[in-house]
């Protein structure tokens, strides 16, 4: 009786390993508003609904953006941007339109 259970567990573990082939995303420095999550990925800022869904890139370019923080009303996101050797604070609309 014990052997069939061990075989079943082994087969289940082997099948699960096949689904785990995708590499995890390294989403960093999340910030939360009432409705969204802003985070850093690949040196750019992204935003996604808190309930799940597709993420939208807020910044692109040569620089490196990090440390997003929502404004109290959730409409703007302040972040640290490193461009041309300088590190400064910038603001972008949370909607991505601006």
Brief account:
By secondary structure, the chain is of the alpha+beta class. The protein has one domain.
Task: Name some characteristics of this structure.
alpha+beta; three-stranded antiparallel β-sheet; 18% helix
Give a structural overview:
The chain contains one helix and seven strands, in the order H-E-E-E-E-E-E-E. The longest helix is centred in the N-terminal third of the chain and has 18 residues. It is 18% helix and 43% strand. It has 98 residues and is α+β, with helices and mostly antiparallel strands. It is globular. About 13% of the residues have low confidence. Strands 1-2-3-4 form a four-stranded antiparallel sheet, with no helix packed on it. A three-stranded antiparallel sheet has the order 5-6-7, with no helix packed on it. A hairpin with a 5-residue loop joins strand 5 and strand 6. It has one domain.
Please describe the topology of this protein.
Blueprint: H1 2-19, E1 28-32, E2 36-41, E3 44-49, E4 56-57, E5 64-70, E6 76-83, E7 86-93
Antiparallel strand pairs: 1-2, 2-3, 3-4, 5-6, 6-7
